[in-house]
Every structure is written in C-alpha cells, then in structure tokens.
Write a structure and sequence with these properties.
alpha/beta, Rossmann fold, 4-stranded antiparallel β-sheet, 10 helices, 12 strands
C-alpha cells in the first residue's frame, strides 16, 4: 500500500542543471560541457519515497548529489522548506547538512577500512558535537541495533562484515544525526538478490518509524515499484515522466517509459508470451552533445518531425501525471 503523507513539500527542485566542463590543451581551454543534469524540476513530499529511474549514465546519481550540494549546481534551485541550498555558505550550510544524508551504492568502497564500525557510525556525532564518551557509545550501539546489527560489533572493522551488513552500517551512519531527507543512491545495486529485499524492507521500516523522506535512485524497476510512492523517469539528463507508481506501471505515456517497462519480466507465462516487447535501436547520445529537439528522438519508435526541432515542455497532462512528449495530449 502507498504510504500516506500530508502533501507538504520538503524538497523542491527547480530547473536544476549540473554541467561538467570539457577542457583541452595545455591552457585547459573550455570547449564544451557534459550536461549531466539539464533542467530537472520536481517536488518531494514530506514522508514519501520518490523513485528516480533510468539507464546507467542518464544523470540519476548526479541529480541526487547536486540536490545535497555535494556537487555545486551550475544553475537552478534546490529548496529545503523554503531555503535555497545553492545560496547557503559556511555555518548555515553546515547546519542544514544535518537534515540531509546520502546512502552510497557500494558498501565496499564507502566505508573506511582503517576505521572501526563504532568510529564510522559515530563520526558525524563528533563532527556536530552531538555526543561524547559513554553517551556517544550508547548512541552508536542504538543505531547498530536499529539497523539489525549486533551492538557488540562496535569494535569490528568493515572487512569482517558481509556486503549486506556493510550496507546496514552505511544506513546507520546516515541516521546518526537524525536527518529528515536521505538520498539512497542505488543502495542495493551491489548486493546479492537475496539480500536486496532485506535492505529495502529495512529502509521502509526506518521510514515508518522515523518519518524519513527518501529520494530512491535505482535502475531496477521492480524494486522501485515496491518502495516508491511516485516515480520519475530520467533520460539523458532530463525527467521525461513523473507520476505515482500505479499510474506509471498501468498507464505509461512516454515512449521511453513504455520501452523500459516492456523489459521488466512478469511472473506470468501467459501474459509474458503475448505482451509486446519494445526494443530500442541505437545507443544513448552523448550528454556532451545531446540532439536538437527532444533528447529521445534518435531512438524513439514514434518520433515525428516536430520532435527533431522543438524540445517538448514538461507538462502536467492529467492530475499529478507529468510528461515531456509532443505526442501526449493533455486530458484535463
């Protein structure tokens, strides 16, 4: 069942852009840009999970990290309850970071092998001066217990844990300073299939217990369907469709979304045998040189002349259902 939320907006992203400069020669002359995120807009409501899906290299992770100001945005705004994060500096930015955290994709690379689990989880407590001594140890043990790990593991090192356990340590680290908003950057991609469901269930339990808000980045559409309230589909730096999960799976409107969903296996042999598989031709264009007009026109099976000339607007075609496509008509 979809989680209930009060529809108050926690995070508002407006026309967000993140370009990485391309330079050449001895003098590092600027010759172009990799348009990793190119004009993305959406809201994330208090207490919900917004799924962000798309092919590898489409800009999903860069979007998440730019929202958190890990990467400074090239243009656009990221509002957290009315404060534009892109304009904050110094102590003001440091304090607002307490409300936002990131769970990394790779549990093997994101934990310092020279630090104990207690040091890793408690590091943020030290940085913000939230607990010391026995109080700090109690808090770290409480966090380990919260994510399903034995609190007595506090003195162990990352190499002594499995991948799933390491990811739980990463989740405990993210929770240490009581954040409101967490970007989950493909947190299950590096885990065994048998462990993935456990980690997703843990994230849902923590959300329910602590009132968390997630941006859940992934390319596994079936897992995103399980955890998300609404889903945004990304292609070559842009959001092409955004709606609630039921609408996306039963009434996809953008040709790219239809192609993605046609590749998701369905555990029903009769349905699987008669459904149409949409196979896209060609490769994804380079984000350093996106096509004119619609970004998807080089691979779209139904593209018309207007698609090669005019960029489609990201439009609300029905209540809560946003699409960027010339061929989708507004239904009111």
């Amino acid at each position: 069942m979809s989680k209930q939320h009060d529809r108050s907006v926690l995070v508002q992203v407006k026309d967000l852009k993140k370009y990485f400069p391309i330079t050449r020669g001895v003098f590092r002359r600027h010759v172009g840009d990799v348009k990793a995120v190119d004009g993305v807009s959406f809201d994330i409501y208090q207490g919900e999970t917004l799924g962000l899906v798309g092919e590898s290299g489409c800009g999903k992770s860069t979007t998440g990290r730019t929202i958190l100001q890990v990467y400074p945005p090239t243009a656009g705004e990221v509002m957290l309850e009315g404060k534009n994060l892109a304009t904050l500096r110094g102590e003001e930015m440091r304090q607002i970071r307490r409300r936002m955290q990131l769970i990394f994709q790779d549990p093997y690379a994101s934990l310092n092998p020279r630090m104990t689990v207690g040091s890793i989880v408690g590091e943020a407590l030290d940085i913000f001066g939230l607990a010391r001594g026995a109080e700090r140890r109690d808090r770290v043990e409480e966090l380990l217990y919260l994510v399903g790990l034995n609190p007595h593991f506090i003195s162990r090192y990352p190499h002594e844990f499995s991948g799933g356990q390491r990811q739980r340590v990463g989740i405990a680290r993210a929770l240490a300073i009581n954040p409101d908003f967490i970007v989950c950057d493909e947190p299950i991609a590096a885990l065994d299939v048998s462990i993935q469901a456990q980690v997703v269930n843990l994230l849902e339990e923590l959300q329910e217990r602590l009132g968390l808000t997630y941006l859940f980045i992934a390319h596994d559409l079936s897992m995103v369907r399980h955890i998300s309230d609404r889903i945004a589909v990304m292609y070559l730096g842009k959001i092409v469709e955004l709606t609630d999960r039921r609408n996306l799976y039963y009434n996809p409107l953008h040709p790219y979304t239809k192609a993605l969903l046609s590749a998701v296996p369905v555990p029903d042999p009769l349905f699987e045998a008669r459904r149409e598989r949409i196979v896209l031709q060609g490769d994804v264009p380079s984000p350093a040189n996106p096509p004119q007009g619609c970004n998807f026109n080089t691979r779209c099976p139904v593209a018309e002349p207007v698609c090669y000339e005019v960029e489609p607007a990201f439009t609300e075609v029905s209540a809560g259902h946003w699409v960027a496509c010339h061929l989708v008509k507004t239904t009111g």
